[in-house]
Design brief:
The protein is mainly alpha-helical and 97 residues long. The protein has one domain. The protein contains 4 helices and 2 strands; from the N terminus they run αβαβαα. α2 links the parallel β1 (21-22) and β2 (51-52). This is Amidohydrolase domain protein. Residues 5-95 form the Amidohydrolase-related domain. Keywords: Hydrolase. GO terms for molecular function: hydrolase activity.
């Protein structure tokens, strides 16, 4: 989703209908951009089928649980969370769940 350039990258979703993005470095406070990450929920709600959970694990400067817990503790519906954490990637790779 663009780490510290989330809004700029999210505009690409409108231009390229097959584009997918992941959440790496977005729902963490590592970059300390000062922006409230809850404002990014609007993007996830608008494109729930095109966002995947991403971690860049093990090459991250924080615990893997940090972005997982932060995303799970948002106001997103359970359906959208399930898509982001599981269904979207399964569909992309042709894995039946």
């Amino acid at each position: 989703m663009g780490a510290s350039e989330v809004w700029e990258y999210s505009e690409l979703l409108e231009i390229y209908p097959e584009l997918r993005m992941d959440t790496t470095m977005v729902f963490v406070d590592f970059l300390a951009t000062g922006e409230n990450t809850n404002s990014y929920l609007e993007i996830l709600e608008h494109y729930p089928d095109r966002i995947h959970f991403g971690s860049d694990f093990p090459n991250i400067p924080y615990a893997l649980s940090h972005p997982i817990c932060n995303l799970l503790n948002t106001s997103l519906s359970e359906e959208i969370k399930r898509k982001i954490f599981l269904e979207n990637s399964a569909k992309l790779f042709g894995i039946s769940i």
